Amino acid sequence: MCGATGSAPPPPQHDPPSVAELGEFGLIARINAGRMLPPGTLLGPGDDAAVLLAADRRVVVTTDLLVEAVHFRLDWATPYQVGRKAVAVNVADVVAMGAVPTALVAGLAVPGQTPVSTVDELTSGMWEEAERAGAGIVGGDVVGSAEIVISVTALGDLQGRAPITRSGARAGDVLAVCGRLGWSAAGLAVLRRGWRSPPAVVGAHQVPQPPYPAGPQAAAAGVTAMIDISDGLVADAGHLAEASGVAVNIESAALPVSPELVDVAAALGADARHWVLTGGEDHALLGCFPPAVTLPAGWTRLGLVRPGSGVTIDNRPYEGSPGWQHFES
User: Fold this and answer.
1) Domains of the chain, start order
2) CA-CA 20 to 30 A from 307: which of 73, 151, 217, 240?
3) Cα(first)–Cα(last) distance of the chain, in Å?
4) Residue 35, exposed/middle/buried by CB under 10 A (0-12, 13-18, 19+)?
5) Where are the alpha helices (DSSP H) in 65-206?
6) Is the pTM for the entire model greater than 0.70?
7) Considering just the CA atoms, what is the radius of gyration of the chain in Å?
8) Are 170 and 248 spatial neighbours (Cβ–Cβ below 8 Å)?
9) Could you report the per-residue pLDDT of 248-298, keeping only the tens digit for each?
């Protein structure tokens, strides 16, 4: 251009609109760019596998799949919220073993036409929730798919303690819970009605809030058995009771039925107590403590462990479905 002074401005940079345009390796590089890896990572993303330090010489490992239209809907939650949820549901299982979360490996399957911005939001949510739990994402894979599928494997460190299993409860133990119950079920009921309010209840379904520090704290305090409440209080108490060969009695007066849930249930013509007993996906922790142990901060007594089998509410069997089960017709 005649008469122009100085250098011309650089051409504008545009993000590629879709995953297919960016390509597999471009997408992987974008997901990992600028991320801080957790302590104990000897080799992070970029090679055939990651290498982690295992000071305890034991590693707690768990994995979960989240499938679009089964575990999440993008008209009900943002990609960022889905990413946080994908990490939270896995790390909750790690802390239920009494372990401290250390690292995660994530697999992501998406259609080629998926906007890159969607993957950006999704992975940002995953990284943020991992950091909230004190961990990080050290590797994974991306593939093309007809729908969005997220697979997360979470790792944890027992720090020299024995793992806390479902099978350690003994008659006489105190049954206790840490975390919210019934909120996710209430949020799902609201979304199914076509509402988006109250935000706190809807948000509880979009992004669970497991009490990450509570698992290792309970292990240090002497908890005998523990489980992540993913299927519902009654259902998961039943899993714990079966594994331990005991009976569990939940006292209805001790159930944490919040006023917010009561208000939502009244608006929907539902039963807040039912949500608390059977609603899954809050990812609270259910634990059994010897009677001489003072419950750690944040834990609430729910009932007692007794000889026998099964779960009762106020010494009576619970009527109805105890909670979520895959493959039910």
Assistant:
1) 19-157 (3.30.1330.10), 174-317 (3.90.650.10)
2) 217
3) 71
4) middle
5) 79-96, 116-132, 183-192, 199-206
6) yes
7) 22
8) no
9) 999 999 999 999 999 999 999 999 999 999 998 999 999 999 999 999 999
